[in-house]
Amino acid sequence: ADMPTRQVDSNVVSWNVAISACEKARQWQLVLSLFAQMPLRNPCPDVISYSAAMSACGKVGQWQQALDLFAEMHFGEVLPNVISYSAVVSACESKGQSQLALSPCAEMP
Asked: Sign of dihedral through CA atoms 96, 65, 90, 19?
């Protein structure tokens, strides 16, 4: 018997699962590719999406990219949380950018 096929709607949770899996596998370029596709497919990135993407960049020394993502959060009106602050600070510290690592903390509430 033929199995019926179903169209599965993607939502922000399914995108975040994929992004987090790639982050854990240190596939930062794939993370950024998925992240860039999110708004085109309708789910807007949330704080979890941003945090995972910044963490992925930090794990491979792409601290500039992590800072760019952190700045982009403000344009997307996504409020950072402790995890996103930690991700961007860790990314900067991983490459000896200790002064830059402290700059996001100045914004903390």
From this structure: negative
